[in-house]
Automatic annotation (TrEMBL):
Residues 286-295 have a biased composition (Low complexity). It comes from the Eukaryota. Residues 286-319 are annotated as: Disordered. One of its GO terms (biological process) is cytoplasmic translation. Keywords: Ribonucleoprotein, Ribosomal protein. The keyword Ribosomal protein applies. One of its GO terms (molecular function) is structural constituent of ribosome. GO terms for cellular component: cytosolic large ribosomal subunit. It comes from Citrus clementina. Residues 114-183 form the Large ribosomal subunit protein uL10-like insertion domain. P0 forms a pentameric complex by interaction with dimers of P1 and P2. This is 60S acidic ribosomal protein P0. Ribosomal protein P0 is the functional equivalent of E.coli protein L10. CDD domains: Ribosomal_P0_L10e.
Length: 319
């Protein structure tokens, strides 16, 4: 006869398991588990087996264990997990790549029908086309103000209709119609809400950033810092080149307006005194591509022998 463990024994075992996972793993995904069935959760555990562990439990129990473990070890970083334990959530402990684990979890979403009273997670649009329903079912469409017509003995929807909006509760008429049409508009699975990594907490959207995105954001930040530094005349490493260039322009302007000069300004004065030098300097660039071709054509003309005339042949047409 197998003796069942008491509630106290189960709590002790759960506390020990959670503390062991907190010690062993430094990366944790906090995932919402609304409308996730036991079979679906089992498939997720099987898919993550190897370097990840999924742990579910009551929020109060998890919070209590985390607080006690933080006090015992002195690692207060674990306390950052407590505000994340809201609603029906679970913890995914992993040693793998966080982005890959998040993508693996997303694979196990399953379709679900629209049940009465359920809050719609997305907009539900009924597409146009033949429904396969007989004309006696038109009452469902009339109640929901869906334009239809009878085509070959079946009901056909004329235009796409937004049946349910995100955040609205599913009514009995909407649920019945979707069931008749065989539409399962919603899909459910573990949804990663937050990421905990070595004491830091951030949004899962960060995992989707590529190296190009990071470079773009870094360049944008540098531009903002540079603009701010130039506006308040505060020297920074990013703004220094622009400050030097602007200072050089100001000094050159002063030199041109006065008799004062320096080597870097002499060349500017020289070009301004004789603007034709601008054209001379630009000429090789403008004509550089045609000059070799022209020279080659000239050389070909020199090498071509002159055509022989009739007189060189020693007779004429009238001889």
């Amino acid at each position: 006869m197998v003796v069942k463990a008491s509630k106290a024994e189960k709590k002790i075992a759960y506390d020990a398991k959670l503390c062991q996972l907190l010690e062993e793993y430094t990366q944790i995904l906090v995932a919402a588990a609304d409308n996730v069935g036991s079979n679906q959760l089992q498939n997720i555990r099987r898919g993550l087996r190897g370097d990840s562990v999924v742990l579910m439990g009551k929020n109060t129990m998890m919070k209590r264990t985390i607080r006690m473990h933080a006090e015992k070890t002195g690692n207060t970083a674990f306390l950052n997990l407590i505000p994340l334990l809201q609603g029906n959530v679970g913890l995914i402990f992993t040693k793998g790549d966080l982005k890959e684990v998040k993508e693996e979890v997303a694979k196990y979403k399953v379709g679900a029908p629209a049940r009465v009273g359920l809050v719609a997670p997305i907009d539900v649009v009924v597409p146009p086309g033949n429904t396969g329903l007989d004309p006696s079912q038109t009452s469902f469409f009339q109640v929901l103000n869906i334009p239809t017509k009878i085509n070959k003995g079946t009901v056909e929807i004329i235009t796409p209709v937004e049946l349910i909006r995100k955040g609205d509760k599913v009514g009995s008429s909407e649920a019945a119609l979707l069931a008749k049409l065989g539409i399962r508009p919603f899909s459910y699975g573990l949804v990663v809400q937050s990421v905990y990594e070595n004491g830091s907490v951030y949004s899962p959207e960060v995992l989707d950033l590529s190296e190009d995105d990071l470079v773009e954001k870094f360049a944008s930040s540098v531009s903002m810092v540079t603009a701010l530094a130039l506006a308040i005349s505060y020297p920074t490493l990013a703004a220094a080149p622009h400050m030097f260039v602007n200072a050089y322009k100001n000094v050159v302007a002063v030199a041109l307006a006065t008799e004062y000069s320096f080597p870097q300004a002499d060349k500017v004065k020289e070009y301004l005194a004789d603007p034709s030098k601008f054209a001379v300097a630009a000429a090789p660039v403008a004509g550089g591509g045609d000059a070799p071709a022209a020279a080659a054509k000239e050389e070909e003309k020199k090498e071509e022998p002159a055509e022989e005339s009739d007189e060189d042949m020693g007779f004429s047409l009238f001889d």
